[in-house]
Design goal:
Layout: H1 17-22, H2 34-46, H3 54-79, H4 89-98, H5 106-122, H6 127-133, H7 136-161
Length: 162
């Protein structure tokens, strides 16, 4: 079953707080581009994080990643589909990783968004390797972690050169 043939996510799953989080507060139910819509939610939540304290920010992101392994695996099991497109907690946390120690201006927020979505959709090696060969909640989170690290690296190089 490819991404276009995925079963719809029942709205009733949103009653469960664990599914609500893994489905990006409902953004994963978007019929078009749920990963992109989930990343938009990630941008909004990013703006509420402690951006001026990178240690606290990193701690929150690390907790969100570990929590995401459980949340994404839990919802994937409930849907009986590994990495269902409606599961977007990985996109939210991936965006937060992309933005680690990046100036919180609209230009950099946009650059981070575009780079993260590019790598998350394109999935060059080793992202594609992780996506295909690592299963469960960790696998769902891992490909987005790698996409985020690629994005973060490019942004940091851009910041250094500018």
């Amino acid at each position: 079953m490819d991404k276009t043939e995925q079963p719809r996510v029942p709205v009733t799953l949103l009653r469960n707080p664990l599914h609500l989080l893994s489905l990006g507060l409902g953004s994963g139910l978007s019929p078009k581009m749920p990963g992109t819509v989930g990343t938009v939610v990630g941008v909004g939540l990013y703006l509420m994080l402690p951006l001026s304290n990178w240690q606290l920010y990193l701690g929150i992101v690390a907790i969100a990643f570990v929590l995401g392994v459980f949340l994404c695996g839990y919802t994937a099991k409930a849907l009986d589909v590994h990495d269902h497109p409606g599961i977007v907690w990985d996109e939210i946390v991936g965006y937060w990783i992309t933005m680690l120690m990046v100036p919180a201006t609209w230009v950099w927020i946009g650059v981070g968004f575009l780079l993260f979505r590019l790598f998350d959709i394109w999935k060059p090696w080793p992202i594609s390797l992780a996506d295909k060969h690592v299963s469960g909640g960790f696998g769902i989170m891992l490909d987005d972690l790698i996409a985020a690290l690629f994005s973060l690296l490019i942004i940091q190089i851009m910041l250094y050169l500018l």
